[in-house]
Specification:
Layout (H helix, E strand, L loop, with lengths): L1 H5 L4 H11 L7 H10 L2 E4 L2 E4 L2 H38 L1 E4 L2 H14 L3 E6 L14 H6 L3 E7 L6 H13 L2 E5 L5 E5 L3 E10 L2 E10 L2 H16 L1 E2 L15 H11 L4 H8 L3 H15 L4 H10 L4
Parallel strand pairs: 4-5, 5-6
Antiparallel strand pairs: 1-2, 3-9, 4-7, 6-10, 7-8, 8-9
Helix pairs in contact: 2-3, 10-11, 11-12
Length: 306
Amino acid sequence: MEPLRALGLSAEAETAYVDLLHDKPVDDEAAVDELLTLGLVERSEGELVIRPPRRAMDALAERHTRQAELARDSAELLNELWKAAAGRQDYLEVLPTYAASQAVLNSVQADAHEQVRAMTMGNLAARELRIVEGMFEALERGVRYDVIYGAHVLQDANALHLVQSCIEAGEQARVFPHVPLNITIVDDRWALVGARAEGQKGPGFVALVVHDSPLLSGFARIFEALWRIAVPITNTTELNDVTAGPSLDAKRLLTYLSAGLTDESIAREFGVSERTIARRIGRLQEALGAQTRFQLGVQASRQGWL
């Protein structure tokens, strides 16, 4: 019988079931045990009695459904355990202490060959900006540094002075209002990633090293996306530049530009020459790192100036 074979019954159990259907005695205990396990028969007062097959098969189907659900849940759990284990072994290292993360950060300068890309919220423990060991030496030997700082550097004279000393040494620096975490990417080979963690015992930190992997590529793309919209910092940048927002006249100028007015019309509104308007627009483009007037509008909108 094909349905019985589909259930995995042996030929002996199939024969025993057919015999029981025809009220024939069955002496093969192994075959009987198979039928009992499936619930196709039961013992009643020492006799084998065939049960209605629909009830037995419904119960069997329910058991298989539960087993399938358990298998799917187990697969998810085992997959997460496998990924965690593979990550520890292959491309992810969790750093247990702040000292360990600082040791890795200080090794960046000696290990970098061509480029270091970094974004920083400041020191994870002290919440202050510090120049990492060996950075100036790395710049001297030709390593390119592209660094995105949080807006705090434009609100602290000491921090801004440190950034500008790095710029003088050759660093390319930009500022972004809300840097989400600390990332240092070394030659697209590995990255140090850190973030603050607020726990029950106060501020803490989470840090890890990410080696060559899709995760490392993802962090590099995050950096490049923020770099494109971050505002350049120069030696002439002053405290509260950019983040402090534009003057009322600058807001008015940006509003006229976004409305599509020509330089001639804007100059007439301000009572100045077109050349003066062009110079003001140029200064705004420089402040926001915009190459075109369209980019100026986009950057001004991102900064909340419009």
